[in-house]
């Protein structure tokens, strides 16, 4: 279930899910999985930590440890979605997917058109769950890593490449390096980055 509520906390560990507009498999269509990794790089440079993720063809699940920041978590996520949207539009245009781009242009509401938004790339809201305990982080990590198996994309979670499952299951970092929720216990998220 998506939310439009503001996250009032200024730091913490959150399990985030955001979805492509109308559940289109845009990451797959645009071969845009690495646009998520680029956003993760921006998050890391700002002092945040990627604890786990899975990039499905039509949506992203990520567990992110947000360090104390003057930028709200909602804004950080909105900026990330905007960053990825520009990249996905560019890729779809390069691939001459004009029908898909036209369809997404038709989904932009009047208010967003006035703000010069040209394509509806993502659902406007996102789901978030604050992770207070190791048990809850373990549960959410397991859920996201099993997602590709439930969708029939792979038999074993660690075989799905755009995911942190390989690290959690084998200890070997793969496509994008993360820290585990157990390693996170040693990190102070309440101090502002320099």
List the helices and strands and how they pair.
Blueprint: E1 12-19, H1 26-29, H2 33-45, E2 49-55, E3 59-66, H3 73-94, H4 98-106, H5 110-114, E4 127-130, H6 134-150, H7 165-170
Antiparallel strand pairs: 1-3, 1-4, 2-3
Structure description:
The chain is α+β, with helices and mostly antiparallel strands and 194 residues long. The chain has one domain: Alpha-Beta Plaits, CATH 3.30.70.1290. Helix content is 39%, strand content 14%. It contains 7 helices and 4 strands; from the N terminus they run E-H-H-E-E-H-H-H-E-H-H. It has helices at 26-29, 33-45, 73-94, 98-106, 110-114, 134-150, 165-170; strands spanning 12-19, 49-55, 59-66, 127-130. It has a 4-stranded antiparallel beta sheet, sandwiched between helices. The longest helix is centred in the middle third of the chain and has 22 residues, at 73-94. It is globular. The mean pLDDT is 88.
SSE order in H/E notation?
A: EHHEEHHHEHH
Rg over CA atoms, rounded to whole Å, is 17 Å
Distance between the termini: 35 Å
Q: Strand order, biggest sheet?
A: 2-3-1-4
In what range is the share of β-strand residues?
5-15%
